[in-house]
Specification:
The structure holds 2 protein chains of 2 kinds. Chain A has 1 helix and 11 strands; from the N terminus they run H-E-E-E-E-E-E-E-E-E-E-E. Chain A is mainly β. Chain A has a single domain (about 30-145), classed as Immunoglobulin-like (Sandwich), CATH 2.60.40. In chain A, strands 3-2-1-5-8-7 form a 6-stranded antiparallel sheet, with no helix packed on it. In chain A, strands 4, 6, 9, 10 and 11 form a 5-stranded mixed sheet that branches. The mean pLDDT of chain A is about 90. Chain B is α+β, with helices and mostly antiparallel strands. Chain B is built from 2 helices and 11 strands; from the N terminus they run H-H-E-E-E-E-E-E-E-E-E-E-E. Chain B has helices spanning about 1-25, 30; strands spanning about 40-45, 50-55, 60, 65, 70-80, 105-110, 120, 125-130, 135-145, 150, 155-160. In chain B, the strands form 2 sheets. Chain B has a 6-stranded antiparallel sheet, with no helix packed on it. Chain B is elongated and about 90 Å long. The N and C termini of chain B lie far apart (about 95 Å). Classes of the chains: A mainly beta, B alpha+beta. The interface between A and B is medium-sized, with 34 and 35 residues.
Chain lengths: ~150, ~160
């Protein structure tokens, strides 16, 4: 009995030690377990969404030079349910652009602006940024600025 | 029975408590020493016409626009505090400062990605973006003390429109 108790306690200690190395208790917050992403315009109209995070259902986004596009980005879980991350202060949306001089992402609370900076074409991808790492990276999306 | 269980478990419980306390400790302070001197967290570019753009962690709010053959005068303000990731308001004006009175070894390096679109002339307090041709590019602001980088803003997009 005593031996078993002691063995169990040692196991708990080892587990505690191992997990503490990678995830200090004080800084852990839940990851965003997103399976897909939906992009909508300011009227709530769906512009495109990812499919199993492998491709975009509408494979390009068209912007007009000089006209910024207000979009909302919504993560979706594996059941297709939308995830509300509006109260999460440790989560933000970022944008990677292959030709970064052509488009700038300006996040706001609950939405963001896609600012075009001249005519051309590039590819962008959205990231759900959690603290110091990405919880989600979308496939590349073609952006055409006319 | 319970006495012996307690005797065996007492050191284990103590070790557990120590492990939990160690795991809760602040790990950041161990590897991130602050560079002595000014603490810079954001940059605000104030244009001569009263408009401004400001950095916010990984992105910018606002962007300079000018004409080819035109100029954009900008004063470089900084703040030593950083707004929360979801707080996108302009940093309070009373918190802005320039490097005018900073020690002489502070300098600002301004790098334009495509130098055929625009060029920069200025010093650590401010300067001028000169539009050279119709196009778009990005500009980076790096604050250094001597040769040590103490702050680097995310690249800022800007646009040069065709000359009128």
């Amino acid at each position: 009995m005593m031996r078993r108790l002691r063995a169990m306690a040692v196991c708990v200690l080892v587990a505690c030690g191992l997990t503490a190395c990678d995830h200090p208790i004080g800084i852990v917050s839940a990851h965003i377990e997103a399976a897909d992403l939906v992009v909508r315009d300011s009227a709530g109209v769906e512009l495109t969404r990812t499919s199993f995070n492998r491709r975009w259902m509408v494979d390009s986004l068209v912007l007009r030079d000089g006209a910024s596009l207000r979009v909302t980005i919504t993560p979706v879980d594996f059941r297709g349910a939308e995830l509300d991350v509006s109260e999460r202060r440790d989560v933000s949306y970022r944008l990677d652009a292959e030709r970064a001089e052509l488009v700038q992402w300006e996040p706001q609370r609950g939405f963001g602006w896609l600012h075009p900076f001249g005519r051309g074409e590039t590819r962008v991808r959205f990231l759900i940024w959690h603290g110091d790492h990405a919880d989600f990276v979308s496939p590349w999306l073609r952006v055409v600025i006319r | 029975m319970f006495t012996s269980v307690r005797r065996v478990m007492r050191p284990v419980v103590a070790m557990l408590a120590m492990a939990v306390m160690a795991a809760c400790g602040d790990k950041e302070g161990v590897t991130a020493p602050e560079v002595e001197g000014l603490r810079i967290r954001e940059v605000i570019l104030a244009a001569d016409d009263g408009t401004f753009a400001f950095s916010h962690r990984d992105h910018w709010h606002g962007a300079p626009v000018m004409r080819a053959n035109g100029t954009r005068g900008l004063t470089l303000h900084f703040t030593s505090t950083q707004l929360a990731p979801d707080d996108h308001d302009v940093p309070p004006v009373e918190s802005w400062f320039t490097l005018a009175t900073a020690p002489s070894d502070y300098n600002v390096r301004v790098v334009i990605e495509d130098t055929t679109v625009a060029r920069w002339s200025g010093d650590r307090v401010g300067g001028t973006l000169h539009g050279l041709r119709d196009g778009a590019s990005r500009v980076s602001f790096v604050v250094r003390r001597g040769s040590t980088t103490i702050y680097e803003a995310p690249p800022l997009n800007f646009r040069v429109q065709p000359a009128p």
